[in-house]
Amino acid sequence: MTREEAVQILHQYTKGESLLRHARTVELVMRGYAQKLAQDQELWGNTGLLHDADYEAFPDRHPQVVVGILQECGEDAMAHAIAAHYSHWGVSHDTLLDKALLGCDEITGFVVACAQVRPQRLQGLEAKSVLKKLKQASFAASVDRSEVRLGAELLGIDLPEHIEFIIQTLQPHAEELQLQPVS
Question: Where's the HD domain (predicted)?
Answer without folding.
Answer: 20-90
